[in-house]
Amino acid sequence: MANAEKHGSLPLSELSSQSASFGEWQMVVHFPRTHKYQYKQDGIPKDGQVFKCVLTSVADAKLYVVGEAKNDRKNIDAISKCMKQFQDGIAFKMTKVSFRADAPKRYTHSPCFG
């Protein structure tokens, strides 16, 4: 943890809705993958896809979050960009974190989420 603090990073346990916009965390990517799913929009079946990976803290690998990205109108190739950038074992600085507004509370029960 002291090493992470030297580089200006916060411990992952400090990640909250308050710190998400200004904090930075040193992370490592694990298990990057795409997940296909089906849903209905206006009663019409649609196919969707999402990029997911596990992100562990460099300072303490027992602490982790799940990273997720979807294509949308603003970023139509988000999934392909993530598959290229976030490869297994790559370390990076995580900044400008946002939380899914629709995430079930059972997934945000740890002290990492405020």
Layout of helices and strands:
Layout: H1 2-6, E1 24-41, E2 44-57, E3 64-69, H2 78-85, E4 91-95
Antiparallel strand pairs: 1-2, 1-4, 2-3
Descriptive account of the structure:
With 114 residues, this protein is mainly beta. It has one domain: OB fold (Dihydrolipoamide Acetyltransferase, E2P) (Beta Barrel), CATH 2.40.50. Helix content is 11%, strand content 38%. The chain has two helices and four strands. The protein has a four-stranded antiparallel β-sheet, covered by helices on one side. Strand 2 and strand 3 form a beta hairpin. The longest helix has 8 residues. The chain is globular, with a radius of gyration of 15 Å. The N terminus is likely disordered.
* H-E order: HEEEHE
CATH-defined architecture: Beta Barrel
- SSE class: mainly beta
According to DSSP, the number of beta strands is 4
Question: What structural keywords apply?
Answer:
38% strand, 11% helix, mainly beta, OB fold (Dihydrolipoamide Acetyltransferase, E2P)
Report a brief summary of the structure.
The chain has 114 residues and is mainly beta.
